[in-house]
TrEMBL record:
The gene is pknB. This is Ser/Thr protein kinase. Residues 25-37 have a biased composition (Basic and acidic residues). Its EC number is 2.7.1.-, 2.7.11.1. It comes from the Bacteria. InterPro entries: PASTA_dom.
């Protein structure tokens, strides 16, 4: 602990030091223009160096990416069966360039993808070009003409033309074309997909139809009605009949018979020379003859031998020929027998 005397001595000593000799500061030196230019030039050089380095960095980066630097591999996605628009969008989203190629295909629908080149799941460089093979549908070819060939010969010719699916169908034909090809569906010289079924139509001979009943019609009307059924060949035969002259009484073959449509149908045409025989049973001759004459009969009576028919039938008609209801020529002979 300092005494009062010691404390006073120290303070005096410090005051003496403060009042001692003083050192002056160094005078300030101003830079001249030469020194200032040198400083600015040094900074500019550094800025230029930095700029050059930046440009070199960009150039080197581009060169590496362009000339054999490390590239990123991308797997080609599987777009088979997709529509061409969807497939192209998928591939473009992966960064690929696209080229499309149209090809026929029997299994892939038109405008859908058959496949790609390079193939699906192949690893390629990003940005590579991918060829997308797009289906145009089955290949189209022309149907050859196989008319007059047998079915087997037709199949062979169609197979050689590229077709592979066939079906036989029979159709009426002329007799000469029985067992021969009379056409195809699609028809000859028409273009069709090779996957389509070609129907080979083979002749089965003339079609058969039932002869319709044309009795009571005129010849013209009867022929037109027969035409509707497919019959086109006719002949005529005049027949004894109580029907009006020129009217068809029937056909040969008869109505309802099944015959080929190329058959000749004979039209039996009434001469109009008959009347329908009435029933003369029980009549006396004096009553029977006027009735026959009234029907137009101009012929002669053939009186047969009398028949023992009992007293009630004496001199009455007990037998007649032709029978009642049949046609009788107006100038024909009628046979009657009377009871005795």
């Amino acid at each position: 602990m300092l005494t009062d005397a010691e404390r006073t001595s120290l303070l005096s000593s410090a005051a003496g030091n403060l009042s001692g000799p003083r050192t002056d500061p160094l005078p300030r030196q101003d830079l001249d223009d030469t020194d200032r230019d040198r400083s600015i030039g040094s900074v500019g050089r550094w800025v230029a160096v930095v700029a050059v380095l930046a440009v070199l960095t960009v150039v080197v980066t581009i060169a590496i990416n362009t000339f054999g630097g490390i590239t990123r591999d991308v797997q080609v996605p599987d777009v088979r069966g997709q529509s061409s628009a969807d497939a192209i969008a998928t591939l473009q989203n992966r960064g690929f360039k696209i080229r499309t190629l149209q090809k026929p295909d029997s299994t892939i629908p038109p405008d859908h993808v058959i496949g790609t080149d390079p193939a699906a799941n192949t690893s390629v460089s990003a940005g590579d070009e991918i060829t997308v093979n797009v289906s145009t549908g089955p290949e189209q070819r022309e149907i050859p003409d196989v008319s007059t060939l047998t079915y087997a010969e037709a199949v062979k010719k169609l197979t050689a033309a590229g077709f592979g699916r066939f079906k036989q169908a029979n159709s009426p034909s002329t007799p000469e074309l029985v067992g021969k090809v009379i056409g195809t569906n699609p028809p000859a010289n028409q273009t069709s997909a090779i996957t389509n079924v070609v129907i080979i139509i083979v002749g089965s001979g003339p079609a058969t139809k039932d002869i319709p009943d044309v009795a009571g019609q005129t010849v013209d009307v009867a022929q037109k009605n027969l035409n509707v059924y497919g019959f086109t060949k006719f002949s005529q035969a005049s027949v004894d009949s109580p029907r009006p002259a020129g009217e068809v009484t029937g056909t040969n073959p008869p109505a309802g018979t099944t015959v080929p449509v190329d058959s000749v149908i004979e039209l039996q045409v009434s001469k109009g020379n008959q009347f329908v025989m009435p029933d003369l049973s029980g009549m006396f001759w004096v009553d029977a003859e006027p009735r026959l004459r009234a029907l137009g009969w101009t012929g002669m009576l053939d009186k047969g031998a009398d028949v023992d028919a009992g007293g009630s039938q004496h001199n009455r008609v007990v037998y007649q020929n032709p029978p009642a209801g049949t046609g009788v020529n107006r100038d024909g002979i009628i046979t009657l027998r009377f009871g005795q």
